[in-house]
Amino acid sequence: MRTRLSGADSHLSDADLIRLADGELGSGSARSVLGHLEACWQCRARLRELEGAISEFVRLREEAFAPAIPAAGARAMLRARLSEEARTTTPGRFHISIPALATGLLVLVAMLVTFGGTVNADGPKPRLSITPGETRPVSLAEVCASSADSAADPIPESVRLQVFAAYGMDPAQADAYEVDYLITPELGGAYTVRNLWPQPYSARWNARVKDRLEHRLHQLVCSGQLDLHAAQRDISTDWIGAYRKYVGPGI
Amino acid sequence: MGSSLQAVVGLLVGTGRPGRSALEEEVTAFYDAFRGPLLRYLASMRIAPADGEEIVQEVFLALFRHLRDGKSRANLRGWLFRVAHNLALKNRHAKVRHAVVEASGESVDPGMNPEQLAVGNQRQARLLAVLRALPEQDQYCLSLRAEGFRYREIAEILGISLGSVANALERSLSRLSRAGGEA
Ligand SMILES: [Zn+2]
Fold first, then answer.
1. What is the ipTM of this complex?
2. Where are any strands of DSSP class E within chain B?
3. The CATH number of the domain where B99 resides is what?
4. Could you state, in chain order, the average pLDDT of each consecutive group of 10 residues for chain A (251 residues)?
5. What's the domain range around B99?
6. Is residue B3 part of a domain?
7. How many CB pairs under 8 A join A and B?
8. From A93, A107, A203, residue closest to B3, measured CB to CB
9. Chain A residues whose beta carbon lies within 8 Å of the beta carbon of residue B12
């Protein structure tokens, strides 16, 4: 049984009570504060008053600060502004300037060089010598414990730049490309440059399409209809072929 | 070959992105989730509703650029409130300067006071008065705490120390509880 020896001085401060209620006390302090509360009616009553102030504030806030304007118009406006933002920041929009033309020709040459043998009508493919696709050691259980579209961490800018450099591309054109994992991490793909390649947003076979394949492969692997290694091999050697094989003939 | 040529032409004339990008969709999803809480927070900062709506738009345009540039995705909710808070301060600053010019030196409370009308009863009106008499930093801390932020997140949003957050909450809840007790 706890005895208070020194009168009001030994009561808990409002700060301690609030931090306790907010779960912001370290476990040591929380224990001693809780010990005091068990023994002390005054402090319990004070805690209740503070909680009362919190409820009143919450209620006041809901009444006084409720957003009144319906969202639809504002939402449409934001959508329009986002499109505008996406457009205006794509280099060379509506203007074919000489520098842009020169850059474009350079990129064309770079693409001819880099994608040389592997370009077909479906768009550029990852180059095996740069992006063979890499996996990390991962068990089937781990793969299937995460959902097929659980978001991977964003690819750091420095890594994106490495990928563009490896493909001999001008980083100024980066906005038109998505740097994408060849073997998706959800199928055990590694977080390495050798598993990353630049995919143009404009390609018909783009990252959105590849997402569908990845989803399908995850399903097949986790329902035991396809071996994980076979899925990794097929998506890394020819993902478009894999799409036709596992999802369907067309997009 | 055909489509890589297309891609280059796309880069030149700006058709490089088809329709809406995944990023636009993502930012819209964030907007749907956080417009309400951000507007509420801005109202608590005494930003007029129309200004609040405009600030929220700017916040999500900033989010779009932030994510497009590959910047950190850590605690995006806190990031949104921090950007909104700073834009609101800027907006109020501009408003005060404007008002001072208009009223030739008379000091004008920029947010005076749409919410007073909305408050139902006397007791709440009194609480609101107590709330408004608190230092602004304390009001921000209370509102952010009510949005469910932890002390460390509040400190990051407002750019103050953890101790200042705890003190602000102690001060304001002590005063509010006394005001409630006087009923
Ligand atoms: Zn006590």
1. 0.77
2. none
3. 1.10.1740.10
4. 47 94 92 95 96 92 74 87 83 47 59 46 64 80 71 67 72 70 83 78 75 83 83 86 85 77
5. 21-109
6. no
7. 207
8. A203
9. 92, 96, 100-101, 104
